[in-house]
Amino acid sequence: MIDDGKGEEIIVEIKDTGEKYRVKRTSWEMKFRNMFNALFALNGMIWSRVIDEVGYEKARKMNDEIWGMIGAGAAKEMGADKLAGRGTPRHFFEFGQTAVELLGLWAMGVDLEVLTANEKKVHNVIRKCPIIEAWRSVGIPKEKWPVLCTLTAAWDEMFARTLNPKMRVRGCCDPENVQHGLAAGKDKCNVIIELTE
Prior knowledge:
Layout: E1 9-13, E2 20-24, H1 28-54, H2 56-78, H3 89-102, E3 111-117, E4 121-128, H4 130-137, H5 145-152, H6 154-163, E5 167-171, E6 189-195
């Protein structure tokens, strides 16, 4: 490959013939969008298959273990682990906005409105979710979206519990009392983070 990183093309040279094949360089935005969609579409396809094979309860247990490890690692990387046991919903909000940015959700067009963000409660409303759009793009059936949403949102619950074992995520992403929004065809998701007694 001949690539100086500056031109509009990447030139791939075929060694045995000397042919030079030209590939148009794509923007970083396009690369990011393709990777985001591929990641979340693949994730949805894999979990959909796992649920079909082993059932929701076993899939949920595996998913929570995985997200628990990822959540703990992300908490440490962001410095949130220093709050372990003392974190508040406001802390979740602050770290959560960083996570939304790192995952690329803002760049992908998430429509998220923060109604409340204080020490006792955070209430977010999501009106557009690019993760659901990724599922739609690969033809995952709509009836699977609510379950996939619950599995995907386990990140929030595990991160919240890393900050404080008494913190819970309620509303659309509540694993114990799911009240789906967008994934069930409604116009919004309510996501509430609060401390339990």
